[in-house]
TrEMBL record:
Domain F-box/LRR-repeat protein 15-like leucin rich repeat per the UniProt entry, residue ranges: 77-267
Gene3D superfamilies the UniProt entry points to: Ribonuclease Inhibitor
Signal peptide positions (record): 1-26
InterPro entries for the chain: F-box-like_dom_sf, F-box_dom, FBXL15_LRR, Leu-rich_rpt_Cys-con_subtyp, LRR_dom_sf
Entry keyword annotation includes Signal: yes
Name of the protein in its database record: F-box and leucine-rich repeat protein 4
Gene (name only): FBXL4_1
Domain F-box residue range list: 36-74
Pfam families assigned to the protein according to its UniProt record, in alphabetical order: DUF7885, F-box-like
Keywords: Leucine-rich repeat, Signal, Ubl conjugation pathway
Length: 370
């Protein structure tokens, strides 16, 4: 479908290229026509725009129009992007708001020089910056971001595992951050606490696999006092969050809608922490309790009692759950669409089939490789 649109678009543009200078001037004098051309061009890829810009003066002008570059994803060109090509795009990006550089710049193609000159020139209007798997990033790069992008609301540093722990301290200067992804980075506790102190608008935070954070209870407590509007939190594989930390978190962050507590080995259902969680966050939509541990029927029943908006529940690997509590949950949560019960030893294929036929709108996932 998309490529059909692209094909038609190119056919229209081919006609434009054939016009005389007089005709193109006439076309361009009408705001309506200019708008129409912009609309057509908005269907093209960056590579198309760059090629087309070379075809004629009219199209060069339109292909370089900053309105075509409010959102720019350079991820598809990760293998070719260099300091030079980034510099080449700079003049067109005066209105840039969202930039995706994920996977780019590896093996020396992008350097501090190219990155920082782009950021210094174009950072002011940026609200979203995707930098996952950018191994060229170093501490000076983060310093440049913190100085040049005062309006930034979203920052994704997922899997930037070569960034030195010290680099993360710069993030606390981005005080309007609402979404921050630090999955699989080397951030340490001090830097994280400072970010949470200075970025009170945080809505979405991913701390999955941040193995250098020492004490997650301290982090939970800071989240509860500073980030009361938190909507989603990913603590996948967090080393040592306890029931005390979780209790504090859910008492402070009542707006939580998504919570990933997968593979958190120190949370024990016997403390009542999962039931308290269910009682504290009535807006909960997605909950991951993935692991091989203690979640039990009373936890599921409390979710059924308190979280009617639940859409997605993952209890992979919990042995204590019975079909009865799952049925209660399915009845109480009409919006449920996904229930993962893989490796739940009491829930066999026959139970899954029965529940699936009673609740056909829910995908009940059961891995069969056990
Ligand atoms: C930007 O990169 C991310 C990976 O960080 C990718 O998942 C996403 O689809 C990209 N966004 C756009 C708009 O291309
Ligand atoms: C951040 O990047 C990762 C990895 O590419 C992607 O999967 C994820 O969706 C992104 N997260 C956000 C919140 O944009
Ligand atoms: C978590 O780690 C910190 C620092 O290593 C330690 O002080 C705290 O007692 C740990 N908590 C648990 C529950 O192990
Ligand atoms: C759960 O733990 C048991 C024993 O500790 C192990 O045999 C089993 O493979 C584990 N299951 C999962 C899903 O990790």
């Amino acid at each position: 479908m998309l490529s059909a649109v692209r094909f038609k678009t190119l056919a229209v543009l081919r006609q434009l290229v054939l016009l005389s200078p007089f005709q193109t001037a006439a076309i361009n004098s009408s705001p309506h026509n200019r708008h129409l051309i912009q609309l057509i061009l908005s269907h093209l890829t960056l590579a198309d725009l760059c090629r087309l810009a070379q075809s004629c003066k009219l199209l060069h002008q339109h292909c370089c129009d900053p309105l075509q570059y409010t959102q720019l994803s350079l991820q598809p060109y990760w293998a070719r992007l260099s300091d030079a090509s980034l510099g080449h795009l700079q003049s067109r990006c005066t209105l840039l708001q969202r930039l995706n550089l994920s996977w780019t710049g590896n093996r020396g193609a992008l350097t501090l020089t190219g990155f920082s000159s782009f950021m210094k020139a174009r950072g002011l209007s940026l609200v979203c910056l995707e930098l996952s798997c950018c191994h060229f990033l170093n501490e000076p790069c983060l310093e440049v971001i913190s100085q040049s992008c005062p309006r930034l609301q979203e920052l994704n540093l997922s899997s930037c595992d070569r960034l030195h722990p010290q680099a993360f301290t710069h993030i606390s200067k981005l005080i309007h951050l609402r979404r921050l992804v630090l999955y699989r980075t080397k951030i340490e506790q001090t830097a994280l606490l400072s970010i949470l102190t200075f970025c009170p608008e945080m809505r979405h935070l991913n701390l999955g696999s941040c193995l250098r954070i020492e004490d997650y209870d301290v982090v939970a407590s800071m989240l509860a006092t500073r980030c009361r509007s938190l909507c989603s939190l990913d603590l996948w594989r967090c080393r040592n969050l306890t029931d005390r930390g979780l209790a504090e978190l859910v008492a402070g962050c009542r707006m939580l809608e998504e919570l990933d507590l997968g593979w958190c080995p120190t949370l024990q259902s016997s403390t009542g922490c999962f039931q308290q969680l269910a009682r504290s966050v009535p807006r909960l939509r997605k909950l991951f309790l993935t692991a091989n541990r203690t979640v039990c029927d009373s936890d599921i029943e409390e979710l059924a009692n308190c979280c009617p908006l639940l859409q997605h529940l993952d209890i992979l690997g919990t042995r204590l759950i019975s079909a009865v509590s799952l049925k209660k949950l399915l009845q109480a949560c009409p919006r449920l669409v996904l229930l993962d019960v893989s490796f739940c030893s009491q829930i066999d294929t026959r139970v899954v089939q029965e529940l699936s036929s009673l609740f056909p709108n829910v995908a009940i996932k059961k891995s069969f490789t056990q």
